[in-house]
Each structure stands twice: as C-alpha cells, then as structure tokens.
Amino acid sequence: MFVLSEADMDCLFRAAVDGEVDNTACEQLSAKYPKLVALPNTTSYHEVNIEYWDLAAILSPLCIFTPENPQEVAGGLTVVRQTRTPFAIRSGGHTPIPGASGTSNGVLIASDNLRHIELGTSAGQQIVKVGPGLRWIEVYEWLANQSLTAIGGRYATVGVGGLSLGGGLSYYRSVHGWAADSIVNFELVTAQGDVLQVNKNSNADLFWALKGGSGNFGFVVSLELEVYPLVDIYGGNILTDAAGTDALVRASASYADPVLGGVADPLSAVNPTLQLDLYTRQRSSFTNIFYNASVNSSPDALKNFTSVPPVIPSTVTGPRSFVGFINETAAFPNDMR
User: Would you state the torsion angle of the CA atoms of residues 79, 92, 141, 139, taken in this order, to the nearest 10 degrees?
Assistant: First the structure.
C-alpha cells in the first residue's frame, strides 16, 4: 500500500507558509536546473504563467519549474519537500478555481515539457503512452494518423493530466466510461522522489485513488491509455441568442429523460452551455452535439437539439472527422466565464 509520512502529506497539500516569503526553493531549483526555472518579471515566466483557461486562475508563483523527465520531477519535489515550500501542479490549467493548479506563495511545477507520445502494448492490449503536458487535441491528431482514438477531453485545449486524474468527461463516456476508466498505468513520482509504476497489479490502492484523486497523491509523469478504432462521427456546434435559450433548455430536459430521452442512446452525447454576457446582460447558448457513428442526418437522440434555431448557421454535419469536430473548440478564448 502507498503511504506518505505526515510531513510529506503536509507538503503535498500545500500547507500555508507562516512569516516572510522564502525563496530558498526557487534559489535551489535555479541552481540545479537553470534552464527549467522561470523567475518573476521575465518573459519565460509570463508565457508559462498565463496558460490558464480562466484568467481568474492565474496567480503569482515564486517561480515556475518545468521538468522534462521523471528524474527532474523527483529532484524538484525533493527541493520543495526539504525546504517545506508550498507548491502546485499544473497540466493544461483548465480549472477556473484559483489555487487548484496554481499558487501565489510557492513553486508552480508545470507539466509543459512532459509531452511524449508513443504507441505500445500492455497485457497484450494496444495502448498509447502520453505525457501530462499534452493537450487533448494533440493526442487526438496524433492518434488519428494511426486510425485510432482515446477517451479524453471534449475541448481541444484541455490538458491530458488534469482531466484524466480528475475523472474526465468524454464524448465516448456512455460506451467506454470516463477518461480515467481507460487508464491502465500511471508513472508517478512520490513526494520522497521515488518513481513508481501504478496499475491494477502494482500499487493497486494508489491506482484506484488516482482515478479522480487529482494531483494529491504524487506527480504523474506519464499515463498509458487504452485506444480504440477511429470512425467518422456526426456532430457540431449550435449557437443561439436569447430567443433560443428556452428551446435549448427544453431540448436538454427532454434529452435527459432516462427512458424516452436521447441519453438512452449510448452513441450520443451533448454539452449544452448557457451564457450570460456580463456587459450587455444578454443570454445566449452554445451546444456541442455528438453522435459516434458515420451518419449523414440527425439521429433521433439529437433531433431536439438540431431543431433549435441557431443565431448563425450551425456546424452540425456528418459524416465528419472527430478531430475536425474537436478542433472547432480550439478557437475559444481564455476567460470564457
């Protein structure tokens, strides 16, 4: 069983620092890894620190450490543990919650340089091994060249690590489950600096805890995911103005009916979003609809959505590529909320 000391748990949960700000950890990291540490008031610090989906989540870490391999992660964790310095772990920075993947009184350890991707096998099953610093669109595009896909994020720029460790909603969830369900192995660095292989046969308790436990049990440097054959899909995006929001709410309620609604069709998935412009006070909606089959007209499960009048022509069509569908979300600006 995986066990941390009380002191290590205190460090992992980013205990508060009393008294003056202590830059000892940043000084040690800069001396040991000069090319991997960014300090405040530098271009590299700014470029890495703004990589959050919601601007409210951007904090002011004492420094930013971007390791490139498990050994450097272990070295960084050893420094923050020994200096008792709070730290945060960030993958893609999609969370809107300040402090969930950032810090203003400690070290930000960002996964930006952990970007490997390769096919392999595990127990005779084909898998893809990916780094937590990748965005899901990068994984989808790479796998599409192999006619494969994986169970991951619904938006192009979401990070692999955060979504997977948080559970991970996916368009394929009704057939294959959440993103975490398809993970067969984690490579993880503990607070003590040990590198572990975590799966159902090795460190099984930790394997269970990581599927939803976020970054609270160690630093995941690699994930091995099940892969599936890639097929063309039906889907796209529907944007409505205030006049269409009531129709969207009715479509969503109808879809959610467990007996008669579209949710009963496991090939379907929807992601309806209601929006309020804080300046104009106008309502609008943005909805992704998805059907995991190569069809050229709206399946019954989605007809309540495709009948909602859009304010601009919708992008819903089929058959179309899954990568093209996901790429439509890549243009969303930060601070959508």
Answer: 50
The predicted structure's pLDDT at residue 11: 47
Q: How far apart are CA 97 and CA 223, in angstroms?
A: 24
Secondary element (H or E) of residue 164: helix 160-165
CB distance 65 to 37 below 8 Å: yes
Question: Residue 133's closest CA among 109, 151, 97, 166?
Answer: 109
Residue 266: asked if its preceding bond is cis (omega within 30°), the reply is: no
Question: Residue by residue, what is the 3-state secondary structure of 168-231?
Answer: CCCCCHHHHCCHHHHEEEEEEECCCCCEEEECCCCCHHHHHHHCCCCCCCCEEEEEEEEEEECC
Give me the pLDDT at residue 20, please: 56
Q: Is 186:210 a contact under the CB 8 Å cutoff?
A: yes
CA 143 to chain CA centroid, nearest Å: 17
Alpha-helical runs (H) found in 63-120:
70-82
The residue to which tokens 């995006």 are assigned: 237
Q: What is the pTM of this model?
A: 0.91
The identity of residue 183, as a single letter, is I
pLDDT of residue 337: 40
**Residue 330: pLDDT band by 50, 70, 90 thresholds?**
confident
The pLDDT of residue 13 is 45
Q: For the chain, state the CA radius of gyration.
A: 21
Average pLDDT (7-23) is 52
Q: Is 151 helix (H, G, I), strand (E, B) or coil?
A: coil
Asked if the model's pLDDT at residue 65 lies above 50, the reply is: yes
Cα dihedral value 103, 114, 182, 165, nearest 10: -10
Position 333 scores a pLDDT of 54
Q: Which residue has the tokens 């559970």?
A: 167
Provide DSSP, 24-67. HHHHHHHHH-TTTEE-TTSHHHHHHHT--SSGGG----SEEE--
